[in-house]
Amino acid sequence: MSAALPFRLVAGALLGLVLTVVFFLALPAVAWAEDAQVDPNPVRPGAQVDVVATCPAGVRSASISATSLDGASNMPMLASAKNPREWSVTLTIPAETQPGTYALGGTCGDGTGFTATVTVATVLGPMGGGGSTMRGPSATLLITGSLLLVASIAVRRLARR
Fold first, then answer.
1. Of 39, 37, 70, the residue nearest 55 (C-alpha)
2. Residue 20 CB: number of other CB atoms within 10 A?
3. 71-83 burial code (b ≥16 CB/10 A, e <16)
4. pLDDT computed for residue 12 by the predictor
5. Which region holds residue 58: left if phi is over 0, alpha if psi is between -120 and 50, else beta?
6. Is the pLDDT of residue 75 over 80?
């Protein structure tokens, strides 16, 4: 191996690092508020959830998009009487909503954004899982995971040689 090769590798790595830093400093800053809180979460189809977002001080409005739940795209939120930075809305989960995780996005009046995640649970079985709907650990997943772990250790040992 020539002496120039390690120098080229180090120089290339340093150049990549400098370009990455310059790229991120040149990007315009996107302001995001904190993630919104959803209660209750998880929720069953047909039930209601309260979404509470925290916006920067002095904001005069906030809205949320519930299109992922077949709701409106620009629903106004109400200011909290207790905390001037909090904005809330009550959403009804449509009865026909399939179980899964749904993302909601919103915007504070100053342009900062926030996200919320709603988990819609199945109407069968207990909300927390377990109980009669749980059959215990999946033998297939345990075996597959174990084989992948062994394979990764073997590849790492072969790479060291």
1. 37
2. 10
3. beeebebebeeee
4. 53
5. left
6. yes
What is the 8-class DSSP label of residue 146? H
Q: Strand, helix or coil at 152?
A: helix
Cα gap 70→45, rounded to integer Å: 12
Rg from Cα positions in the chain: 24
- Tokens 């990455």 label which residue? 20
Q: Are 116 and 51 in contact (CB under 8 A)?
A: yes
Q: What single DSSP character describes residue 122?
A: P
Ranking 25-29, 112-116, 146-150 by mean pLDDT, the lowest is 25-29
For the residues of 3-61, what is the DSSP string, one character each?
Answer: THHHHHHHHHHHHHHHHHHHHHHHSPPPPB-PPPEEESSSB-TT-EEEEEEE--TT---
Residue 35 pLDDT exceeds 50: yes
Cis preceding-peptide flag for 76 (omega within 30 of 0): no
